[in-house]
Design a protein that fits this description.
- By secondary structure, the protein is α+β, with helices and mostly antiparallel strands.
- It has one domain: Gcn5-related N-acetyltransferase (GNAT) (Aminopeptidase).
- 39% of the residues lie in helices and 22% in strands.
- It contains 7 helices and 7 strands, in the order βαααββααβαβαββ.
- Strands 1-2-3-4-5-7-6 form a 7-stranded mixed β-sheet, with helices on both faces.
- Strand 6 and strand 7 form a beta hairpin.
- Helix 1 packs across helix 3 and helix 4 runs antiparallel to helix 5.
- The longest helix is centred in the middle third of the chain and has 19 residues.
- The termini are close together.
- The mean pLDDT is 87.
């Protein structure tokens, strides 16, 4: 795939080297520090850096879980080898195992440690919310998709400062091509309503009853479940 300037890009499905995984993880941390959901979960609204410990702990967990049950995927510039964007995705066959690992990790190291030191005291106020959020997200996802085979996109992000260059579109096209080659649906969650138009270009619609605040709390940010229906098996390009 190429962008408007003709630079070649490629998706790396499965990051096997330590440096690839580290770059992918740091990209996600930097991209999501400005996300109001993670700022809320860290009790750090308007102070992105205060959300970093929570995000780093979550990304540590996500890396371990994806290596075991899913895939870490990066979009790179072939010439410079720079990581431009990344996402994590798991097949529905592996979701029960993912949730089991997630519940295990979020109650132990490294996620729990983010609440233990005085430097992170501001996060204690949201500890109970964080511990309940995973189960709430899992229930919403399960209600929408049931037993239908699908790909579940956990996180997707473009490198900070490189928005508007078609990076997100390249990742979504690759993801949709994979789903079409398997003849299955795709499920993802958005925390910004303005992203719904972008996802809509690739066939995603908001699932009924999934335009809600996290844990249905009045002061919490939105958490929106979106589905792209299976459209039959296509030959992957």
């Amino acid at each position: 795939m190429s962008n408007k300037e003709g630079n070649k890009r490629a998706l790396l499905w499965g990051l096997y080297t330590r440096s690839q995984r580290a770059d992918h993880k740091e990209l996600l941390v930097e991209s999501f520090m400005d996300d109001h959901l993670y700022q809320y979960m860290a009790n750090a609204e308007g102070k992105p850096e205060k959300a970093r410990p929570l995000l780093q702990a979550f990304m540590d967990i996500e890396e371990r879980i994806m290596i075991a049950t899913g895939q870490l995927v990066s979009l790179i510039d072939i010439e410079t080898q720079q990581t431009l964007g990344g996402f994590t995705v798991v097949h529905s066959d592996n979701i029960k195992q993912r949730n089991k690992l997630l519940n295990s990790f979020t109650n132990t190291w490294p996620y729990y440690r983010a609440y233990l030191t005085p430097a992170h005291r501001h996060m204690w106020h949201r500890y109970s919310v964080n511990m309940s959020a995973n189960a709430w997200i899992e229930e919403m996802h399960s209600t929408v998709m049931g037993n239908e085979p699908h790909l579940y996109v956990i996180m997707i992000a473009t490198r900070k400062g490189m928005e508007g260059r078609g990076i997100g579109s390249d990742m979504m096209r690759g993801l949709c091509e994979l789903a079409d080659s398997m003849g299955i649906a795709v499920y993802l969650e958005a925390t910004h309503a303005e992203l719904l138009h972008f996802y809509g270009k690739f066939g995603f619609v908001v699932a009924p009853g999934c335009d809600r605040t996290i844990l249905d709390l009045e002061d919490a940010p939105m958490f929106i479940g979106c589905v792209r229906q299976a459209i039959g098996i296509r030959q992957a390009k």
